[in-house]
Description:
The structure holds 2 protein chains of 2 kinds. By secondary structure, chain A is an all-alpha fold. Chain A is built from 8 helices and no strands. Chain A has 2 domains: 1-58, no CATH class; 60-167, no CATH class. In chain A, α5 runs antiparallel to α6 (111-121) and α6 (111-121) packs antiparallel against α8. Chain B is an all-alpha fold. Chain B has helices at residues 2-15, 23-57, 60-75, 81-96, 99-115, 119-130, 138-146, 156-185. Chain B is globular, with a radius of gyration of 20 Å. Chain B starts with a helix and ends with a helix. Classes of the chains: A mainly alpha, B mainly alpha. Chains A and B meet through α1, α2, α5, α6 and α7 of A and α1, α2, α5, α6 and α7 of B.
Amino acid sequence: MKYVIPVIFIAVLVYALIKRVNIFSAYSRGAGEAIKFTFTLLPTLICIFIMCQLFERSGLASALTDALSPAMSALGIPKELTKLILIKPFSGSGSLAYLTEILESHGADSYISRCACVLYGSSETVFYISAVYFAACRQKKRLLPIIIILISTAISTIFACLLCRFL
Amino acid sequence: MNAVFTLITLSSAILLLFEPEQFLPALTDGAQNAVRTAAMLFLIYAVWMGLSAVAEDSGLTRSLSRRIRKPLKRLFRTGDDQAAENIAMNISCNLLGIGGAATPYAVRAIARLEGEDNAFGQNLLFILNATSLQLVPATVIALRASLGSSAAHDITLPSLIVTALSTGIAVALFLAADALSRRKKK
């Protein structure tokens, strides 16, 4: 897997060389577009990260975690994973930090850790993606796809915890 | 997004009244994290968007996506060649596990679909991306290996099964909801 990125990089450059493209000016133009692109994302990022900080610092996150744990265990989800499941839809870096914490405290090969890894690897930051993707759209009502994704994530979360007991 | 943001921010803010000295630091730390993340994203986007501009100028993007353009156009109900091209690149990058390269393609595809008022295609692309399309969870495997796992790769298969399941359920639900709303209109 570690060869994927270098191979892609070299293949694209070699192909461009054969086609006699000005690689330097094309690359710098693309990198320049990234400046504009990142700036359009910044307002969204600020809102989401402020929300996450408030959520965490106010104690609401841990209160919600405690409140939801019994329901989660009833569905076969270990209570250590509640917080990860709650944070993942909002923040990739936040949930990665929390995943690291779980792996460190429970050991990388424990059931809890493997479960956490599968959950992290098979889901995405739904709210973040929706904000980024639809930032430039006129029609703002995008509730239905988000609800659909949350339902499918919930079902697959329960399934993942079951699957990790056997695989 | 507005409802979620308002609900969480407001209720957290009210709870924080018990520790008023924490209030402003929480806000500025949030903004700081955002800027730090944006800087990191910018590095990734600059690297990949540079390369994708090279691929585009050399005609590589066009010839790579030629074969799957037609089925994609039918699937996403679009008549726009460039939208289909961007969707093809977005899906390929996702499958290869280079999410940083995938996002700019998705945003471009969404903008093209916006031009023809194709909310169906936009939502479908969003659902595919938001349920994760990764074949190999490279980040997680690297993290496990660095923390002393004896078999860092053994989560690949369960991750793949769960990813396929969640994407399958979401797409099925979305198509069902779409069929239902069309029937209502008739």
